[in-house]
Amino acid sequence: MKAFVLQDWVTVRGATTVTQIIQNEANYAALDQFQDVILWLQVPEVTLGGGTVTMNLDTAPLKDESLFTPMTNLNIGVTQGALAPIIKSNLLNASGNNVPLSRWVRWHITTSGSGTWDMTFRILLVANQQIGT
User: Fold this and answer.
1) Which residues contact 54 (CB under 8 A, 6 or more apart)?
2) E strand map for the chain
3) Could you report the per-residue pLDDT of 17-70, keeping only the tens digit for each?
């Protein structure tokens, strides 16, 4: 197991016209040596102007926008106010709608509604190395 900081503390702000914010490509986590991952999302503060803010964690084999797919069991709807830390895991198995962990992992925020909003968060992850690597 190896621990990474996918995103150190950051506050992201937007307005009605901002419907998505994607992590900077230079900060994507390269997880091609790993078989599964546990992610810790900590959100101490969210301010909504009306609507929702959703944190998605995406994965792709290459840094190509068209290839990124949400790890479906990691979509986290955030509501206004202080939140307890949220732990989500992506387990590779033959059943369910899980998207297998690929080489690159990033965060991706989507919003709906009206008014200005902000969200303060950090994302830590622990990855389990593939056997034989």
Assistant:
1) 75, 76, 77, 78, 109, 110, 111
2) 2-14, 20-22, 29-30, 34-47, 51-60, 69-70, 76-78, 86-90, 104-113, 117-129
3) 888 899 999 999 999 998 888 888 888 888 777 777 888 889 999 999 999 998
Residue type, 33: Q
Q: In this structure, are residues 42 and 84 in contact, taking their beta carbons and an 8 Å threshold?
A: no
Residues 6 or more apart in contact with residue 46 via CB below 8 angstroms: 53, 78, 79, 80, 81, 83, 117, 118, 119, 120
Domains in the chain: ranges and CATH: 2-129 (2.60.120)
| pTM reported for the whole predicted model | 0.83
